[in-house]
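2024-03-11 09:14:02 INFO worker-7 job=invfold-0412 stage=load source=structure_tokens
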């Protein structure tokens, strides 16, 4: 019984892990996913994320081995994407990207469609082919989503109903979507899965959310809805 109880605690803890998945700058990092795990919170209540594995276990062509960190730089009031100098300590890390135009009031960093993640060409020599965008990279998970942007993309004939909703949202007028995401009003990603025209929202707490639908051509559509 004690063993079963401990196992339940471990499983419960792993379910609440906060991660960021990144893929970009293929010339230096190759075309592969990097998983950032939240490792703590700084004195300014900003989350700190670090890739795992961290001990030279994820090779990439341009830098030899890739070990990354995303953290807040309060002195410069910006989020930074850092590369380790090679020892896994981040004592004198390389600044690869920085974003100073996102919503800096939140504890999570902006995604690649929020503000501008600027390439630090002094370090990369321009090999990342410019700033991070939704067209040249993916940055998903515990990040500020496009819900924080004011502008919404034209939704053409796409409709969602009912709204407000209790259990399931129906999506009509779409046939080439690939991903469905739900964000809360603060921009935190709540749910991400393969698109289905019937979206289960029964486990969401009451409040306002954003349903984001990502098409196969990477165009996206956003819809506000209220969970009853």
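2024-03-11 09:14:09 INFO worker-7 stage=emit residues=228
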């Amino acid at each position: 019984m004690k063993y079963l109880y401990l196992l339940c605690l471990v499983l419960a803890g792993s379910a609440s892990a906060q991660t960021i998945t990144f893929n970009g700058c293929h010339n230096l990092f190759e075309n592969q996913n990097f998983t950032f795990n939240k490792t703590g919170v700084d004195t300014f209540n900003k989350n700190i994320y670090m890739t795992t594995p961290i001990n030279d276990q994820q090779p990439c062509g341009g830098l030899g081995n890739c070990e990354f960190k995303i953290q807040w730089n309060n002195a410069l009031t910006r989020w930074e994407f850092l590369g380790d100098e090679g020892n896994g300590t981040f004592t004198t890390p390389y600044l690869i990207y920085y974003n100073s135009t996102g919503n800096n009031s939140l504890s999570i960093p902006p995604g690649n469609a929020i503000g501008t993640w600027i390439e630090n060409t002094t370090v990369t020599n321009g090999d990342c082919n410019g700033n991070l965008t939704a067209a040249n990279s993916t940055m998903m998970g515990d990040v500020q989503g496009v819900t924080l942007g004011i502008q919404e993309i034209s939704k053409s004939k796409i409709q969602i109903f009912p709204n407000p909703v209790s259990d399931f949202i129906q999506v009509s007028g779409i046939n080439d979507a690939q991903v469905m995401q739900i964000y809360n009003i603060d921009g935190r990603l709540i749910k991400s899965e393969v698109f289905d025209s019937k979206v289960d929202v029964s486990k969401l707490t009451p409040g306002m959310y954003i349903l984001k639908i990502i098409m196969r051509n990477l165009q996206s559509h956003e819809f506000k809805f209220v969970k009853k």
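2024-03-11 09:14:09 INFO worker-7 stage=report msg="The first strand starts at residue 19 and ends at 23."
2024-03-11 09:14:10 INFO worker-7 job finished
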